[in-house]
Amino acid sequence: MLPRCELQRQALGYGLAALSGCLLSTLGVLGKTAYALGADPLSVVSLRATIAGIILGIAVMATKPKLFRLRLVDLPFFVGYGIVGVALNYVGYFYALEFTTVATAITVLYTYPAMVVVLAFIVYREPIVRLKIAALILCFFGVVLVASGSSSAGLTSDPRGLMFSLLAGGSTAVYIIAGKHVLRRYDAKTVLFYSFLFGSLALNVLRYVELGPGLNVNTEIMLVIVAIAVIPTLLGYGVLTYSLRLIEAGRAAITSSIEPAVSIYLAYLFLLETPSLLQLAGSVLVIFGALLIGFSKVSEKQRGR
């Protein structure tokens, strides 16, 4: 049997991973809203990372400035981490929203738990046990059902939607695997701040090259972007990053897979993207898979594996 404190630690880790999925699920609705108001993807993603970085930086400066300390030898890692885990991730997802529905974009993105499980085994030797495989299969088939059941735009509607969604998924997997490594030496807020810093620098350079120095945003668009920076970005990524300190990377990835299930309901409520029966069935499979991965960890520990 696990000590009570360890059980509480595990429960907190899974709870945070699930909460991150709920927070991140707001991104599709908010992104589509920004587009409807006339925003362009590069302006949205560059401002999203910049605003999130500024807010977090002010909070760290006011509470614990020593968290800004960074070893010079780790600087190249954080530069790459920000470019891949933030810049490529944001560009991939927000461009995917231009070419396909929220349901399809988010569910193709959520092929990343499979990537994380495999990479976590290779990099960290996290065991691939039977219940983890079963949870992964449930989530995968749930993703397939949600994507294939999209009523207005499926996977074949525009190859660019699929390509950008896969880019977002791959960069998310790298963010989680690399984050697990760097969290051994740095606080979660340090990791988040520097990922936003270097990610926003890359995004702003790209936006300047593509669109010039001006910003095509009005007050309404800016309010939506601020909401994106706070809810799915600061809170969603912050909670996910902290969960990596408590549970395995693969389990955090699978547990946060409730995001596509929540996303299709939010898209129905706010964007009138009506889910089909296949999508609803797929969302149930995803939720069951996320729950199963939590139960599997407890059962393994209780058997002394």
What does the model show?
The N and C termini lie close together (11 Å). The chain is mainly alpha-helical and 305 residues long. The protein has helices spanning 4-24, 26-36, 41-63, 75-99, 102-109, 112-124, 130-148, 159-182, 188-211, 219-243, 249-255, 258-271, 277-302. It has 13 helices and no strands. The chain is globular and about 55 Å long. 79% of the residues lie in helices and 0% in strands. It has one domain.
Order of helices and strands: HHHHHHHHHHHHH
Number of helices: 13
Q: Could you name the ranges where pLDDT drops below 50 across 5 or more consecutive residues?
A: 151-156, 298-305
Which structural class best describes the helix and strand composition? Answer: mainly alpha
Helix content: over 70%
| Percent in strands | under 5%
Q: What is the makeup of the main sheet?
A: none
Shape: globular
Q: How many beta strands in the DSSP annotation?
A: 0
Mean pLDDT: 83
**Radius of gyration, Cα only, in angstroms?**
19 Å
Distance between the termini: 11 Å
Number of spatially distinct domains: 1
Features:
globular, mainly alpha, 305 residues, disordered C terminus
Furnish the topology, listing elements before pairings.
Elements lengths: L3 H21 L1 H11 L4 H23 L11 H25 L2 H8 L2 H13 L5 H19 L10 H24 L5 H24 L7 H25 L5 H7 L2 H14 L5 H26 L3
Helix pairs in contact: 1-10, 1-11, 1-12, 1-13, 2-10, 2-12, 3-4, 3-9, 3-10, 4-8, 4-9, 5-7, 5-8, 5-12, 6-8, 6-11, 7-13, 9-10, 12-13
Nutshell version of this structure?
It contains 13 helices and no strands. It is mainly α and 305 residues long.
